[in-house]
Amino acid sequence: MSVLLETSLGDIVIDLYIKRAPETCLNFLKLCKVKYYNFSAFHRVQRDFTAQTGDPTCTGQGGECIRSLIDPKTPKYMPVENHPKLKHTHRGTVSMAAASPDQAGDGGKPVMGSQFFITLADDLNYLDGKGSIFGRVAEGLEILDLLNDVQVDGAYRPFVDVRIKHTIILDDPFPDPEGLVVPDASPLPTPAQLATVRIGEDESLEDPVDPEEAEKQRRSKEAGAHALTLEMIGDLPFAEVKPPENVLFVCKLNPITRDEDLELIFSRFGTILSCEVIRDQKTKESLGYAFVEFDKQEEAEEAYFKMDNVLIDDRRIHVDFSQSVSKLHANWASKGANAQGFAGLQGYERNRSYREVEREREDARNNTSEQVARCD
């Protein structure tokens, strides 16, 4: 005797213990038959413990037995049915949940309505006697794995709704109680049930991200990971190092333009800390680009806006902000990690000279190749 639960996570088949828990099985089967469980949420999911559902109000406070549903004058709950040989030993055990103490029947005996739970772990024997075992999950144990992994809030309510869509009775040995009305089709969710929806099953728990934005985020994370690796092996002073904002990159220079000429032209915008035309290491001939470092960022910005495309020595130059950190790194590497400040930060921030060593020139050529390509 079995029932198929179609849930938003997948199908679960429950085999029923009709001989050992006949009253409980009848209650469950007839509630399934009238589609009472349709759209019910798994309102309480505790990892490696239980997943509870069967409340049409989706609050954990509702639900009634089939006889009360047929005749509202009868008690809302029925006595819990316990068989001594039925235990919560295996994952996938299905039990009717006992109502709260204030809802207990005459004499304080536990009662049950429509809510039931499925165990998500083995050896939960301390639940014995606290609910009425009436079945076990025969198919769909992988769905229990998914259910066990859902994200929940502080009250163990899943953030993304997990709901029973349909109940299909595969075999029912019990005659219908008098007055039972079976609907011709599955009823639509009521406005009250729809109001309980948190995040729909077809929605994502995470905010939707535009594919282009997602790719940018991916590249940014990847670049951060590479930078962190370089920091760990000592090739960068720290992963967040950025190009200086007071250094300009000047390209398309005439080979005859000298350092002094360029420094004189740019000095009208502010104090020049260093100005160097980059030259071939062997021939000493100009490579057609240079670095100009100002004392202040504002001075570099003014020069950037006013000097781009200006004619110098019969060549229209191109000015941009430097994208190279090689000069900063060279100073840091030469001073070592024991320099003043974090990773020598203070030292190389105070003394960024582009005329120190030949190695720096080679670094500049390597790190600015992309900018040179854009200029060409």
Detailed description of the structure:
The protein has 376 residues and is of the alpha+beta class. It folds into 2 domains: 2-194, Cyclophilin (Beta Barrel), CATH 2.40.100; 241-375, 2-Layer Sandwich (Alpha-Beta Plaits), CATH 3.30.70. Helices cover 28% and strands 22% of the residues. The chain has 11 helices and 15 strands. It has helices at 22-33, 66-70, 141-148, 191-194, 211-233, 259-266, 297-307, 326-335, 345-350, 358-367, 369-375; strands at residues 2-7, 10-16, 44-45, 50-53, 78-79, 93-98, 111-119, 131-139, 164-169, 247-251, 272-279, 286-294, 311-312, 315-316, 318-321. The strands form 3 sheets. Strands 1, 2, 3, 4, 5, 6, 7, 8 and 9 form a 9-stranded antiparallel β-sheet that branches. Strands 11-12-10-15 form a 4-stranded antiparallel β-sheet, with helices on both faces. The longest helix is centred in the middle third of the chain and has 23 residues, at 211-233. The radius of gyration is 37 Å and the shape is rod-shaped. It starts with a strand and ends with a helix. The model is unreliable at 231-240 and 335-358 (pLDDT under 50).
How much helicity do the residues have?
25-40%
Number of alpha- plus pi-helical segments = 11
CATH A-level architecture of the largest domain? Beta Barrel
CATH class of the largest domain: Mainly Beta
Looking at the structure, what is the overall shape? rod-shaped
Instruction: Provide the succession of SSEs.
Output: EEHEEHEEEEHEHHEHEEHEEEHHHH
